């Protein structure tokens, strides 16, 4: 099945170049010139991934990201200037899954998009579609998570982090292992990026977040007591 990509970018040339790369990759593409158009297209079409510029007329990328996250966990890649580290972190706080800095290579953008569209989590036995631990239940087919029987909305990246840790219960996962598994070897962020995603995940898990232990100078461990 073809994937539908929504490209939200007010610069016509950048939007067209990115669109051509995704069309060549076999995707369908929707284009928005500003935040208002982006919301309208998102609400009227089925979208598999959103590429979202931050600085736009009418409605900026922050507002678009926040409004979409109120309704959906569709993967979002934000486009930001390399010097604006705080912008990147704010994007993650609002629920973005990844970012690409301007000026960027369309090939890198396409690679990041493919990573989000194709889960990097280890493939479980085909008959094992659910991960459970105490009050947490993860459905690997529907990409849904329940805590105490109530469904919570995780971003694609948060889901991958939780799934990878749960598949390796009681094993210390280094930051390098987590980066390679969730972001891939092309990752160029820093510790603050990982910390932000982990903080968001823990906040959503509530009291169950205590199962994710930070191992000083080592990494993380999903702890399940026998």
Automatic annotation (TrEMBL):
Membrane-spanning residues: none
UniProt KW Thylakoid keyword: no
Sequence ranges assigned to domain Response regulatory in this UniProt record: 4-117
RNA-binding as UniProt keyword: no
Predominant localisation class: cytoplasm
Domain of life, source organism: Bacteria
Domain OmpR/PhoB-type: 128-224
UniProtKB keywords: DNA-binding, Phosphoprotein, Transcription, Transcription regulation, Two-component regulatory system
InterPro entries assigned: CheY-like_superfamily, OmpR/PhoB-type_DNA-bd, Sig_transdc_resp-reg_receiver, WalR-like, WH-like_DNA-bd_sf
Residues within the DNA-binding region(s): 128-224
Gene3D superfamilies cross-referenced by the UniProt entry: 3.40.50.2300, 6.10.250.690, Winged helix-like DNA-binding domain superfamily/Winged helix DNA-binding domain
Recorded GO MF terms: phosphorelay response regulator activity; transcription cis-regulatory region binding
GO cellular component, as recorded: cytosol; protein-DNA complex
4-aspartylphosphate PTM positions: 53
SUPFAM superfamilies cross-referenced by the UniProt entry: CheY-like
Subcellular location: Cytoplasm
GO biological process: regulation of DNA-templated transcription
Pfam families named in the record: Response_reg, Trans_reg_C
The protein, known as: DNA-binding response regulator, OmpR family, contains REC and winged-helix (WHTH) domain
Species per Swiss-Prot/TrEMBL record: Gracilibacillus orientalis
């Amino acid at each position: 099945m073809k994937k539908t990509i929504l490209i939200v970018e007010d610069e016509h040339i950048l939007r067209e170049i990115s669109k051509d790369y995704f069309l060549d990759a076999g995707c369908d593409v929707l284009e928005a010139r500003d935040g208002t158009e982006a919301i309208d297209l998102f609400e009227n079409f089925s979208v598999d991934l959103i590429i979202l510029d931050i600085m736009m007329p009418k409605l900026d990328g922050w507002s678009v990201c926040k409004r979409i996250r109120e309704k959906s966990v569709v993967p979002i890649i934000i486009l930001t200037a390399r010097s604006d580290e705080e912008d990147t972190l704010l994007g993650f706080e609002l629920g973005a899954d990844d970012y690409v800095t301007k000026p960027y290579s369309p090939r890198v953008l396409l690679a990041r998009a493919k990573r989000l569209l194709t889960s990097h989590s280890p493939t479980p036995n085909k008959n094992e579609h659910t991960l459970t631990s105490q009050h947490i239940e993860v459905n690997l087919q529907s990409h849904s998570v329940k805590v105490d029987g109530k469904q919570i909305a995780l971003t694609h990246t948060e889901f991958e982090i939780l799934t990878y840790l749960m598949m390796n219960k009681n094993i210390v996962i280094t930051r390098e292992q987590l980066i390679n598994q969730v972001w891939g070897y092309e990752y160029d962020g820093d510790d603050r990026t990982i910390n932000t995603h982990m903080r968001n995940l823990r906040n959503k898990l509530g009291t169950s977040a205590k199962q994710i232990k930070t191992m000083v100078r080592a990494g993380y461990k999903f702890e399940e007591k026998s």
